[in-house]
């Protein structure tokens, strides 16, 4: 009954870990993807019969940010048919994070309403300047 989930050798009085409904020798609880050792107290995620370390779990289940190319671990923003870190989806003019309401310029750049109207005003002023 107390056989290691990896090597099937009986675990006696030695330290062991419990994960995914099985008992493991301390050195035998490994991530099934990257084979790193999962230590006592570390989070491991049983998924479809395999055990993943927290990093592999993130890599296999979380989207990639369109802005920086990194995995999105916590909060995300969905806009323009992509996923973003909230801090990566930012105004092309002032570089502050964009909120729910923003404008997309013809060149596909996204801007805050204030920045959009400032750009519009500049275009009107420049258009009326004598040549």
Automatic annotation (TrEMBL):
<dbReference type="GO" id="GO:0046872">
    <property type="term" value="F:metal ion binding"/>
</dbReference>
<keyword id="KW-0440">LIM domain</keyword>
<feature type="domain" description="LIM zinc-binding">
    <location>
        <begin position="2"/>
        <end position="63"/>
    </location>
</feature>
<keyword id="KW-0479">Metal-binding</keyword>
<keyword id="KW-0677">Repeat</keyword>
<dbReference type="Pfam" id="PF00412">
    <property type="entry name" value="LIM"/>
</dbReference>
<dbReference type="GO" id="GO:0003712">
    <property type="term" value="F:transcription coregulator activity"/>
</dbReference>
<protein>
    <recommendedName>
        <fullName>LIM zinc-binding domain-containing protein</fullName>
    </recommendedName>
</protein>
<dbReference type="GO" id="GO:0030018">
    <property type="term" value="C:Z disc"/>
</dbReference>
<dbReference type="InterPro" id="IPR001781">
    <property type="entry name" value="Znf_LIM"/>
</dbReference>
<keyword id="KW-0862">Zinc</keyword>
<dbReference type="GO" id="GO:0005634">
    <property type="term" value="C:nucleus"/>
</dbReference>
């Amino acid at each position: 009954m107390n056989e290691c989930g990896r090597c099937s050798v009986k675990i006696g009085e030695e330290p062991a870990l419990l994960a995914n409904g099985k008992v493991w020798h301390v050195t035998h609880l490994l991530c099934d993807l990257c084979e790193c050792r999962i230590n006592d107290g570390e989070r491991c995620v049983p998924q479809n019969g395999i055990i993943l370390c927290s990093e592999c779990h993130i890599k296999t289940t979380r989207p990639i940010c369109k802005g920086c190319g990194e995995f999105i671990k916590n909060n995300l923003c969905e806009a323009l048919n992509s996923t973003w870190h909230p801090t990566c989806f930012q105004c092309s003019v002032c570089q502050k994070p964009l909120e729910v309401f923003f404008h997309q310029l013809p060149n596909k750049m996204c801007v805050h309403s204030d920045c959009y109207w400032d750009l519009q005003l500049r275009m009107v002023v420049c258009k009326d300047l004598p040549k």
